[in-house]
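This protein record is not my work; I was only asked to verify it. Take the sequence as given and treat only the tokens as open to question. I have pasted the whole thing underneath without changing anything:
***
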Amino acid sequence: MNKFEIIEDIVFLLYLFPLLINGLYALYLWLASSLPPIDIYLKVTNDGIILLVSVVVIIIALIMDVQMNPKNIRIRKIGENVSRMRILAFLFIILSLFFAFIASNYSSNTFDLYLKGSYAILYPLILLGLSLTLSPSIKHLLKPSLIIFEMIPIVLMTSSPLLLYIFWRFGLSYNTVFFIPFLVFVAGIALFLYSSRSKERAKLHD
């Protein structure tokens, strides 16, 4: 295993760290205390230290991956980290909603609980904002392709939980509450995946 493969493995582990630290902390609280699931969820998702550490770890991973690789591939490495940040942000949104659903005992309080977990909302937004700022194509800010494939997926995926909550608060039908936000989220993922695939094809033709 050469130096660059080791760097890749370390960066991969650093990107997993925010997921692991949340899971391990929740497991510790569950085993070491008599807190109910709702309190465990809120304690984990409102811990400022976990939020700070999780942001710092991703920044370290980015710097390590870019600076420790040859200069001629650093732009590509930035692009790879942009994709990783977005994937991690999407995972956080999905997993936060999933665990809020479990912690609320599968009740309609899921969305209230999700919105009370400030870390569960703020961390994905930080990652998506950072990924947009670092995107190599940001210099072409007003290009239609950037707006469609960089900005719109972020807007769609971050707004889907909010849409779900708003529809639920307005007492709309079950199908509307879940189906429309789900379609919005899937549309965001589809645009993101299409953009990633297009970039990979462009690299192969270079």
About this structure: The CA atoms of residues 126 and 166 lie 22 Å apart.
